[in-house]
């Protein structure tokens, strides 16, 4: 965090020993150590909060981008559905002349519980 060399720490220690005295130096060193630890914790918390805010901004931008993309896709799909509806649904001029094209259907055969068709059983009854 700070750029302090060993010689600077040695000079600070000697000055502290002379100014504070040998009796109170351990208590002062302990207090300074606790304050330094609290300061480091505070700096860590601030750094973490800033990092979290930056990530939150990135996520908001990403959410906005995804939301815009989803809306664009939704509009495109709705446009295509409307085009298909217009293509499939006859227009107002075509409604006056309905176009009924016969659709060939296969004859329906009903099956009896034993697996034979009912049509074959009806044929047997007529005989």
Short description:
The chain has helices at 6-20, 25-88, 118-126.
The proportion of residues in beta strands is under 5%
Structural class: mainly alpha
Unreliable spans: none
**How many separate structural domains?**
1
The number of distinct β-strands equals: 0
Q: What Rg is obtained from the alpha carbons, in whole angstroms?
A: 44 Å
Q: Calculate the terminal CA-CA distance, rounded to whole Å.
A: 108 Å
Write the layout of secondary structure elements.
Elements: H1 6-20, H2 25-88, H3 118-126
Mind explaining what this structure looks like?
This protein has helices at residues 6-20, 25-88, 118-126. The protein has 127 residues and is mainly α. The chain has one domain. The longest helix is centred in the middle third of the chain and has 64 residues, at 25-88. The model has no long low-confidence stretch (mean pLDDT 80).
